[in-house]
Write a structure and sequence with these properties.
Elements lengths: L14 H11 L4 E4 L7 H14 L1 E5 L5 H14 L3 E6 L2 E5 L13
Parallel strand pairs: 1-2
Antiparallel strand pairs: 2-4, 3-4
Amino acid sequence: MKSAAAPATAPELSERQRRHLRGLAHALKPVVRLGAAGLTEAVARETARALARHELIKVKAPGGDREARDALFSALAARTASALVHRIGNVAVLYRPHPELPRILIPD
């Protein structure tokens, strides 16, 4: 199975686009769960794979220090060239459009 190449940079989103994506993500369940080991290469690969397949995903991190969680989510978004749409508690929403055939249409 051929893997789609990840875009080099994260998409820039306006506040209107973020609101739209938050609404779409509301009903989603987390598809990636970070463990005690934190952000490993395997977690980054699995997150990139989930983004290629779904475009919009939720990621759940273990509880603990808020600043550490925020840094973890930011690092994961950077490593996967995705946009950190929203973070609430220990759950973050990441978005990366499919390079050839985006399925999620976001407003301009």
